[in-house]
Write a structure and sequence with these properties.
By secondary structure, the protein is an alpha/beta fold. It is 46% helix and 15% strand. The structure holds D-malate.
Length: 262
């Protein structure tokens, strides 16, 4: 359970940023955005349970277990408070972390994600994909996500991004895919966590995000006391990798708001 450190930072540089990846990906989805975060503050990323190297002794599938994992990684790194940014599944984990450990979360970036639970049909689909990944012992059931995670503009103009996503997906394991899908299927609505959250929030959404579209983002903005909405042009669900400079700027602004509030 380690944090990947993209940038070390020094005392006095401001609160560190901790990035939590989406599904079926790992910390590498943040590589380019992390390097583009303005300033000198520390930038770290976690790999959640179910990613390569994090498959041993998996607990029962639960987003709360992933949040506990992040809390432990932060404790091991000596980080007592951070700006926490989660993309999609990472956003579900960020909200669970804010619920279980509010003291750790100075600010929240919710990137192409939602605070609500899945409707029944989506839950059933997740459980079907989990079973299929195990039965076929392959990542085949999530391969099509290399296309659906990115927006139309990226598919047409920057096919290398889709190719990179496809390669990241191939690196995942059937057991990890099954674990994460079951964890996401079981998660509750956490809009109440946003309502109770006192720190600054930035909600980021690609304008071509078909998986967690703008109305899901607006729902979160409306729930939080101090939230800004950043709509990323020409980006889909993986705005953080499609338009990393825009997402990095939003993270930098949020971290400055968090520094000012702390
Ligand atoms: C993700 O990008 O993390 C997934 O789309 C999350 C999900 O399936 O809800």
């Amino acid at each position: 359970m380690t944090l990947h450190t993209f940038r070390e930072g020094s005392p006095g540089d401001g609160l560190p940023i901790v990035l939590i990846h989406g599904f079926p990906l790992d910390h590498r989805m943040w590589l380019v955005a992390a390097a583009a975060v303005p300033g000198t503050r520390a930038v770290h990323a976690v790999d959640l349970p179910g990613t390569p190297g994090h498959l041993a002794d998996l607990p029962e599938p639960a987003i709360e277990a992933s949040a506990a994992y992040v809390a432990t990684a932060l404790a091991q790194a000596g980080i007592g408070r951070a700006v926490v940014a989660g993309m999609s599944m990472g956003g579900y984990v960020a909200l669970a972390l804010a619920e279980a450990h509010p003291e750790l979360v100075a600010a929240l970036a919710l990137v192409d994600t939602k605070s609500t639970a899945d409707p029944g049909e989506a839950r059933a689909n997740r459980l079907r994909i989990a079973d299929e990944a195990e039965a076929t012992d392959s990542v085949a059931p999530v391969r099509p996500m290399a296309t659906t995670l990115v927006g139309e503009s990226t598919r047409a103009g920057h096919p290398a991004v889709s190719d990179q996503v496809a390669a990241w997906i191939e690196d995942q394991s059937p057991a990890g895919i099954a674990w994460s899908q079951r964890a996401m299927a079981a998660r509750p609505d956490r809009t109440h966590v946003l309502r109770a959250f006192a720190g600054p929030v930035t909600v980021v959404v690609g304008d071509e995000d078909a998986l967690t579209p703008i109305d899901a983002a607006e729902h979160m903005v409306a729930a939080a006391a101090d939230a800004l909405l950043v709509v990323v042009p020409r980006a889909g669900h993986l705005a953080a990798a499609e338009q990393p400079a825009v997402v990095a700027a939003a993270l930098g602004d949020l971290a400055q708001r968090a520094d000012a509030a702390s």
